[in-house]
Amino acid sequence: MVAALRAGDVSSVELTEEAIGRIERDDDGINAVCVRDFERARGAAREADAARARGEEGALLGIPMTVKESYDLAGLPTSWGMPEYRDHRPAEDAVQVSRLKAAGAVVLGKTNVPLGLQDIQSFNEIYGTTNNPWDHQRTSGGSSGGSAAALASGFGALSIGSDLAGSLRTPAHFCGIYAHKPTIGLVATRGMVAPPAAPLPVELDLAVAGPMARTARDLTLLLDVMVGPDPLTHGIAYDVTLPPARHERLSDFGVLVLEDHPLIPTGSAVRAGVNRVADALVDAGARVERHSPLLPDLTEAGTAYMQFLFSGSVARFPVDAYEQLQIQAAGLSADDQSLDAARLRAMVFSHRDWLELANRRELHRHGWRQLFAEFDAVVCPITPTPAFPHDHNPDVLERRLDIDGVGHPYFDQLVWAGLATMPGLPATAIPTGLSPEGLPVGVQLIGPMFEDRTPLRLAELLEQELGGFQAPGR
User: Fold this and answer.
1) Which CATH number characterizes residue 43's domain?
2) What is the number of structural domains in the chain?
3) Same domain, residue pair 209 and 261
4) Which of 383, 366, 379, 374 is nearest to 296 (CA)?
5) Closest to 379 in 3D by CA, of 424, 429, 421
6) CA distance 392 to 415
7) What pLDDT does residue 190 have?
8) CA distance 303 to 337
């Protein structure tokens, strides 16, 4: 699109009208774009065409795209799917929305999310359910499920989402598109905050903002617009220059491939996807290993991730609800080392407990540094299965994930996403093909901290090697 715009083969107005037409024609069945801003988009497209006529340039000048509902966009509602905030309209754009507009992007609207961004599906009382474009009876993922479904359907060329528990990577995996979870702290997140909190430049402990696209190369294009510290804090003193990718040719990469996790089985469809990537790497001459003593302990990593995730989730619970959790945690058997038990205990962590957990994280980060002195990337699942059928049981503890006919606790599937999230590593989600049922299957490429260009470049090379893989919307 950028090349066509620069050559004068198409206008931003034409691209924008085509995207709007797709949404108006097809989104009733998908329900991805929950807040439409078409008139302002048309105005931005006209401005982009005028700017180009004046000789101006911008990385995204004239490109139509969407943003996740959780980002503040002045004049539009930011509810995070919470009914009590359906009319909450921020007065200013999130820092990432500002960066998109400064780069010339045309924002078509906002995409659907789960209630409070706290699910692996995207549905809420305000905007309803977002369906998977490949099978409307299945979820598009969460919490950036609206963005992934929009991209898979051709509703704009790019989108931005966020990731705390795989919220960029899981929807990409479920919908057959690309996404990148940046290194923790690399991308400013001000203005992506649950209402009614003020949009302050806080440093998040696990969550990141990141790009989503239909091709691997477009992830880098969008990430380059997004990177950099908040101008209200660290940006006063410094800027960011990412190091180049470690290699330019697939044959030069050293890759560790993982398909098994001690805390949850890997379904056959996902296992096949991991092995498709491994075979492509081997065929291209890359060094591929299946085991390494340098890999941090996966059981400890998965447990620690759950403890971080759930200790933060209850921070603002009412006192009586918190006291009930304390009673339940005290009743656990000391022998119960399940993830359910780890999550419950973490909900009532003391500050002392949390500091000890944070120290364990630093030991894991050091372990990853040692591993990435030997390898350039790790290839592994994002979740154990392709997209699963909609499950809106309000008691999430009763939900079960079906892995090849056997039910497992719903939230246990997060351990693969947590492998990169807990230590703050970058991870790029790429599609690998379709399952026997015709559902997309993706994997993640985990890279060294602050070397985001390495997994991104690997993603580009694998896209070429696998022959490319396009989602339904064209």
Assistant:
1) 3.90.1300.10
2) 2
3) no
4) 366
5) 429
6) 21
7) 98
8) 9
